[in-house]
Write a structure and sequence with these properties.
Layout: H1 2-17, H2 24-27, H3 31-43, H4 50-88, H5 90-100, H6 105-110, H7 113-125, H8 128-136, H9 142-147, H10 151-161, H11 168-174, H12 178-181, H13 187-198, H14 202-211, H15 215-218, H16 224-234, H17 237-249, H18 251-256, H19 260-270, H20 273-284, H21 288-295, H22 298-308, H23 313-322, H24 325-332, H25 335-343, H26 346-358, H27 363-379
Helix pairs in contact: 4-5, 4-7, 7-8, 7-10, 10-13, 13-16, 16-17, 16-19, 19-20, 19-22, 20-23, 21-22, 21-24, 24-25, 26-27
Length: 380
């Protein structure tokens, strides 16, 4: 009896653990839960695979790139066709000019490698009215064009062949971005062209006065120093004077800087006589060792060469400072210093001076005369 009761209890436990009911013991434990899960999965809508979405996105991007390449190929063919027509002259050239004056054609081609060249050619060959119509297509896109590695050449050509009265929007659109554009790799070129071809224009003058307000930083900037150099060569007198004053505030520091050294050289070449003399006097106030250290460097030697080409007593004094024994030793230690000594005869002057000091009696006068000759030749 006791074993029969235990078997009955075990059967009851198994029945209740299988989920209840007569069928639980027949279908096995957990089968009801599994059936419910299978029914739920069968009624759910499966999500779209991520791979499909990614593939679709890649296909769209490929399609866009394909369209862009197709358009570029089309523009390249158009540019080649227009170039041939312009070079042929006559009616064909007139037809090409008319095509470029169609809405958007010049603007679109200006931003393409081959297209920008045909636009420049057309601007050179067209009459002023046709050139102005082509250029007008860049209205509202001037800053974008200036920043473009291709369209910036078109803007430069427009500045060369048309006046500011014909294209006032060029400078007008540059004003809002002037301080950024003057430091831009391509933007600095436009400022140089404006100075070369329209420095006296009132709007260009105002634009240049604005950017030259930061001359001390610009003359040491990788791209900005080109604009400052151009202002020295083509700018108005008050603009050149502003650059000279900025240089003199930190003259030795600027002469050591790889970008500002070009500006110092340009100031010594294109500055007025008083400005050149003032710069030379500032350099002569430095010690012989400081000048020799500057002259032995790559960019400092360039400045020293410009100084040695100046007429007047400053050149003679500089030669004397650079031919001292300590200065010559410094200069001989670098290829730039050696070239400076050799090109200006300073090494010969040093040897002659040494012979003069080592001689006796009347021979000293002869050596002194020999040492003066190379100095005079270098000054000339």
């Amino acid at each position: 009896p006791r074993s029969s009761a235990a078997a009955a209890a075990a059967t009851a436990v198994a029945t209740s653990g299988s989920g209840g009911g007569a069928g639980g013991s027949h279908r096995g434990p957990g089968s009801a839960l599994q059936r419910r899960r299978r029914r739920q999965r069968s009624t759910q809508v499966p999500p779209a695979p991520a791979v499909v979405l990614q593939t679709s996105g890649r296909q769209e991007r490929r399609s866009e790139r394909g369209s862009a390449r197709s358009a570029a190929t089309s523009d390249t063919g158009l540019a080649a066709e227009l170039t041939a027509q312009l070079n042929a002259g006559g009616n064909l050239a007139a037809r090409a000019s008319a095509r470029l004056r169609e809405p958007g054609v010049t603007r679109r081609l200006s931003f393409e490698p081959a297209g920008c060249r045909v636009v420049q050619l057309a601007l050179d060959l067209a009459d002023r009215t046709a050139a102005a119509e082509m250029a007008a297509q860049l209205r509202g896109h001037v800053v974008e064009a200036i920043r473009s590695p291709h369209a910036n050449y078109v803007v430069q050509k427009i500045v060369k062949v048309l006046t500011q009265q014909e294209t006032p929007y060029i400078v007008a659109e540059m004003f809002d971005s002037s301080l950024d554009l003057v430091r831009h790799e391509y933007g600095c070129r436009i400022y140089c062209r404006l100075l070369e071809h329209a420095a006296t224009n009132a709007h260009v003058t105002r634009l240049m006065d604005e950017v030259l307000g930061d001359t001390e930083e610009l003359l040491r900037h990788t791209f900005g120093h080109h604009v400052v150099e151009c202002a020295l060569e083509h700018g108005l007198p008050h603009q050149r004077q502003r650059v000279i004053l900025a240089l003199r505030r930190n003259l030795m520091r600027n002469a050591w800087n790889r970008n500002a050294a070009y500006v110092v050289e340009k100031a010594l070449l294109y500055g007025g006589p008083e400005d050149r003399d003032a710069l030379a006097s500032d350099f002569m106030a430095s010690s012989s060792s400081d000048l020799a250290a500057l002259a032995r460097s790559q960019f400092g030697s360039m400045v020293m060469r410009a100084l040695l080409r100046l007429p007047g007593p400053s050149t003679q004094k500089l030669q004397e400072l650079l031919t001292t024994g300590a200065a010559v030793s410094q200069l001989r230690s670098t290829k730039h210093g050696r070239r400076l000594l050799d090109d200006h005869g300073l090494g010969l002057a040093t040897h002659a001076s040494a012979r003069s000091s080592g001689g006796c009696g009347g021979g000293g006068g002869t050596s002194a005369g020999a040492s003066a000759a190379p100095l005079a030749a270098a000054a000339a």
